[in-house]
Design brief:
- The chain has helices at 15-25, 85-97, 121-127, 132-142, 150-157, and strands spanning 7-11, 30-36, 49-56, 59-65, 77-82, 101-102, 107-109, 115-120.
- It has 159 residues and is of the alpha/beta class.
- The chain has two domains: 7-65, 2,3-Dihydroxybiphenyl 1,2-Dioxygenase, domain 1; 77-157, 2,3-Dihydroxybiphenyl 1,2-Dioxygenase, domain 1 (Roll), CATH 3.10.180.
- A hairpin with a 2-residue loop joins strand 3 (49-56) and strand 4 (59-65).
Length: 159
């Protein structure tokens, strides 16, 4: 059953592929249900996968195979708080190495066009540091990065 508040992501026939990738890549993620179209529709035929209910890190989502008219944009992203460099590297590399693309400041995009922010907790703490000079050094360091380098953030903080 779909949750009262669910994130709906549109795909061009690949909702099940995306949901399966998310389920195997992120903790607390599952493919919960697959629903087939009861009749033909603009983006598919009767019997095609129409929707996929899935969970990404505890967040209920619905993948809708709506065709190619609806594109993902950076205005929506999943922000993933990581605890260390190993987790940051694992998640970033899983997305990028599976046909995704790197972006700046911890952002990357998966092969379906969904944006992800792989953000180490130390980065968030650093750029919100009450010591404004330290926060600026960490922010300036982040602005030079694709995947976040925790050691470089710590160095910018003077640790």
């Amino acid at each position: 059953m779909v949750s009262k508040n669910t994130i709906c992501l549109c795909f061009d026939g690949t909702a099940l592929d995306a949901a399966t990738f998310y389920a195997k890549t992120f903790p607390n993620s599952t493919v919960d249900a697959v629903h087939h179209a009861p009749g033909d529709y603009p983006a598919g035929k009767q019997g095609d996968v129409l929707t996929v209910e899935f969970t990404v890190m505890g967040i209920p989502c619905l993948g809708l195979n709506a065709g190619s008219s609806f594109k993902h944009a950076e205005a929506f992203s999943f922000q993933v708080a990581t605890d260390d460099q190993a987790e940051t590297d694992r998640l970033w590399n899983a997305i990028v190495d599976n046909g995704g693309q790197e972006n700046v400041c911890g952002w990357c995009k998966d092969k379906w066009g969904v944006s992800w922010q792989i953000s180490p907790r130390i980065l968030t703490a650093a750029i919100t540091n009450p010591d404004q000079a330290a926060a600026k050094r960490a922010f300036d360091a982040m602005m030079t990065m694709g995947k976040i380098d925790i050691a470089a953030i710590e160095e910018a903080l003077g640790r």
